[in-house]
Amino acid sequence: MSARTRMPVGLEARQKKGWIGANRYLLLRRTSQLFFLMLFLLGPWFGIWIVQGTLAGSLTLGVLPLTDPFIALQSLVAGHLPATSALVGALIVLGVYAVLGGRVYCSWVCPINPVTDAAHWLHVKLGLSKGWQPKRQTRLWVMATALLVSALAGTVAWELVNPVTMVHRGLVFGMGAAWGMVAAIFVFDLVVSRRGWCGHVCPVGAFYGLLGHKSVVRISAAQRSACDDCMDCYAVCPEQQVISPALKGKPGSSPLILSPDCTNCGRCIDVCAMDVFNFTHRFDDRVDDRPDPLTAPAGRIA
Amino acid sequence: MSVPDISPDRRRFLKDAARMAGGCMLAGGGLAWLARDARALPAQALRPPGALAEAAFLSACIRCGLCVRECPYDTLVLAELGSDGPATGTPYFIARDVPCEMCEDIPCVAACPTGALDPALDDIDDARMGTAVLVDQENCLNFQGLRCDVCYRVCPVIDEAITLDVSHNTRSGHHAMFIPTVHADHCTGCGMCEKSCVLPEAAIKVLPLRMARATPAEHYRKGWEEKDAKGGPVVEGIIDLPDRLPGPGTDNLATPGGFEPAFKLPGTGQ
Ligand code: SF4
Ligand code: SF4
Ligand code: SF4
Ligand code: SF4
Ligand code: SF4
């Protein structure tokens, strides 16, 4: 490993692409998160009713129903066939995320993401240890448990505790206990488990992950030959296990990040000074062979 | 038989699976406990018009809040985790805070995307959010012979859901009492009466049906109904004994002509 692995994460990218260039997708993502939140808040705050309801279920411009498919599924296994409006809403959401990548919900929409991102930022600043790191599949087990309890108890079980909708509902209808939920998740991610909630526990993220199994929009490490092992992408990726198969794959293997865990956050594109990553679709597995930066004549000063 | 060879990988897998299953049982148990707890809806929490029976409602409502948004009177609120009692995120109202105004077009039901509020409810008078019960006769002003009448007057289904039944005022001896009487067949449980009761704590309260209503006594066969159904006496050839009315020829000593009974019951002290 070079001395560059000990440089602050993203510094090189900032030097090369400028601050904006090195934070492009982060900025876009925060804008998107704010945008979706404001869509819901314009009504209650300013009386501009574009979207009514919450992330659990909403009505846009009085015509477009949207329903969280995981909640609809729990309702279904609890023994209720949702009425047409909710069913159509769930199908639309299913379709959109099945194409865009299930966990696009996580990095571009979910109101908890800024909280866990903030916790992670502080976690790194304070140099805290990883803490408890349960298996990645834990969230799938939690998801199965939520469905099982829904079926047995005849209720939409995860909604009793789901911080995603609870916080969203809190913002739209007035906080209260929901602040406690925000604090609890922040503390959990900060001191108990690094990237713990979204990376290991949240069954909503797990569900959207499954949903995006065959999604079209993908990140590709197309320029992987240019990778100089600075490890910055691993440092920023919330699901770092997804990178290696694409970035470090044998010659001839696909450079696409095909793991459904990838949230399509694009942070790896941001921090890579060598522009290894880019957004593309799942049928584009081109690998561009650029000259190795370290042996190339115009190699950077390390 | 020897212990079958288990490869270290397989062993680790089994161990992990067991650990996961254990953890999930624990978490699932907690969740199930919460779910059970949330089922015991507090007595003062009423569901919106058209809400399915509580168990079905809990499986149907996705906690979206669209019903809350559409309510023009801000009657409905969404429950918060723990503190409110009803299952987290589900809509309810407290009659004494804001009752349901029984909107003609029932916007809350129209807004519900899931059918948790039954779209079959097309006449708000058919809603059964609960039933009003005059729970405290000792403090109700009308029961004391006064003419408060407020609950009666505010009722949107006046003279059907609630009537004033006249009876004799035994205290004053020569006044009437106008007793507010709820008829559950017509009461929608809107809570207007409870909201308007002039007492610091309402004497009339809307209770959920499960608390307000008994089930009919099915094991009783009522003589008068049986008689009507049969079109004649239920038992043939029964002798009709004279009733013990006051008057001559009876054992009522208070009336002139009454006579001493032939024997006295022991211990009657006479
Ligand atoms: S994992 Fe869960 S909490 Fe985290 S961003 Fe995704 S949906 Fe939100
Ligand atoms: S691989 Fe890149 S896009 Fe996917 S989650 Fe990691 S940082 Fe985000
Ligand atoms: S009927 Fe009208 S007042 Fe009553 S809960 Fe529905 S919207 Fe609100
Ligand atoms: S509109 Fe229906 S599904 Fe949504 S919160 Fe109200 S009752 Fe529940
Ligand atoms: S709750 Fe009270 S006001 Fe409403 S219908 Fe029943 S008796 Fe009338």
From TrEMBL, chain A:
Source superkingdom: Bacteria
Transmembrane segments: 34-51, 71-100, 140-158, 170-192
Keywords carried by this UniProt record: 4Fe-4S, Electron transport, Iron, Iron-sulfur, Membrane, Metal-binding, Repeat, Transmembrane, Transmembrane helix, Transport
A single GO cellular-component term on record: plasma membrane
4Fe-4S ferredoxin-type domain boundaries: 217-248, 254-282
PROSITE patterns for this protein: 4FE4S_FER_1, 4FE4S_FER_2
Cross-referenced Pfam families: Fer4_5 (PF12801), Fer4_7 (PF12838)
Annotated NCBIfam families: napH, PRK09477.1
Record has Membrane as a keyword: yes
A GO molecular-function descriptor: metal ion binding
SUPFAM superfamilies per UniProt: 4Fe-4S ferredoxins (SSF54862)
Record bears the keyword Transmembrane helix: yes
Protein name in the entry: Ferredoxin-type protein NapH
TrEMBL record, chain B:
Region (Disordered): 243-270
Alphabetized UniProt keyword annotations: 4Fe-4S, Electron transport, Iron, Iron-sulfur, Metal-binding, Repeat, Transport
Pfam families: Fer4_7
MF terms (GO), sorted A to Z: 4 iron, 4 sulfur cluster binding; metal ion binding
Keyword Transcription belongs to the record: no
Domain 4Fe-4S ferredoxin-type, chain residue ranges per copy: 52-81, 90-122, 131-167, 178-209
CDD domains: DMSOR_beta_like
InterPro entries reported for this sequence: 4Fe4S_Fe-S-bd, 4Fe4S_Fe_S_CS, MauM_NapG, RnfB_subfamily, TAT_signal
Keyword S-adenosyl-L-methionine attributed: no
NCBIfam families: mauM_napG, PRK09476.1
Name of this chain's protein: Ferredoxin-type protein NapG
Organism: Dinoroseobacter shibae (strain DSM 16493 / NCIMB 14021 / DFL 12)
Gene: napG
